[in-house]
Amino acid sequence: MNQHDLILEVLARREERRADRRKFIKIAGTTGAVAASASLLAACDDGPKGTIARPAPTPTPTPTAPALTDGDILNFALNLEYLEAQFYAYAATGSGLSQDILGGSGTQGEVTGGRQVNFTDPVVAAYAREIAADERAHVEYIRNAIGSTAVAQPAIDISSDPDGSFSSAARAAGLIGDGESFDPYANDENFLLGAFIFEDVGVTAYKGASPLITDKLVLEAAAGILAAEAYHAGLIRSTLYRKGIDMPTLITSTTSISDARDSLDGDSDLDQGIAMLDDASNIVPADDSAVAFSRSTGQVLNIAYLNQMAVSRGGFFPDGVNGTISLSADN
After folding, report:
1. Which helix (H) or strand (E) holds 129?
2. 216-246 and 70-93 helices cross at what angle (nearest 10)?
3. pLDDT digits 0-9 by tens, 255-282
4. Sign (positive or negative) of CA dihedral 115, 304, 98, 191
5. Most distant CA pair in the chain: distance in Å?
6. Residues 6+ apart with CB under 8 A from 319
7. Domain spans, the chain
8. Which domain of life does the UniProt lineage start with (predicted)?
């Protein structure tokens, strides 16, 4: 090999080493990889002979949030079950849950509002009683599954006051004006609309949390509760559609509530009213593949807190929820 070819080969190898260093730095994503790249640069320094390359400073690691446990996920779900169970218990029987299933870690709160609905449709009354029993059973089941670390019931607002949670949700949906109140206990139709606010959110909450669960037995239990909540949601939606044939405002009200929920949980469309544009029924809110929507815990709390910002309280939970997961998403 002549001298000219040798020089070309040396230059080519040097360029390959530089390319390798650049590639290494580009793909190094962890603190250890960054430290390794600094060592590599020092070892391959092209400075004058005899000089010592200055080591690159080691960056401060970015703290990462601890991984959520199955207990955290179940406690988050328990807060939602407290809310649903109290609403249905009051609507169906005039009384809330017994004190023996409300205690636990965190601050135990009181329920504001709630009273028995004077149902005129015996079928709706029967639905309310069955769902109330189911939701109470969910509270007991999840508490038993978690054990001693189950969270207490937080403060819950299910009142019909003008500034209460139901009125705020109805006002956001355009169902009532400023200063007016929405009373979910006034009649069968208002009860169904109040239930509609909860049920779809419960389904998307369990669906969204399912990939976070690691224990198969816990996942099976969560899937079973998800199925029950989906039955409830389908029942409420189909009853509203049936009544909406004679009372079309019920159908348009569900679309307004759906739009209000979507405005709280971000830009993506994770919600649907009961009727589609072609006036066909829409009993199953789902994507183009007929797969039910998912919401993150933060998105669920956006709706529960009635706030599209990152907050830790408000709406149906005036003092926030108990447990590790308590912050809504910043939308």
Report:
1. helix 122-146
2. 30
3. 999 999 999 988 888 888 897 657 678 8
4. positive
5. 103
6. 107, 109, 154, 155, 313
7. 1-64, 70-304
8. Bacteria
Judged on CB neighbours under 10 Å (0-12, 13-18, 19+), 19 is: exposed
pTM confidence score: 0.80
What radius of gyration, in Å, describes the C-alpha atoms of the chain? 28
φ/ψ of residue 156, rounded to 5 = -130, 135
The token pair at 186 is: 């006034």
Straight-line distance from the first to the last Cα atom of the chain, in angstroms, rounded to the nearest whole number: 66
Residues β-bridged to residue 292: 286
3-state secondary structure of 111: strand
Instruction: Tell me if 324 sits within 8 A of 72, measured CB to CB.
Output: yes
Q: Please name the residues in contact with 304: beta carbons below 8 A apart, sequence gap of 6 or more.
A: 80, 83, 201, 315, 316, 317, 321, 328
How does pLDDT run across 39-89, given as a tens digit for each residue? Answer: 333 334 444 444 445 555 566 665 555 688 999 999 999 999 999 999 999
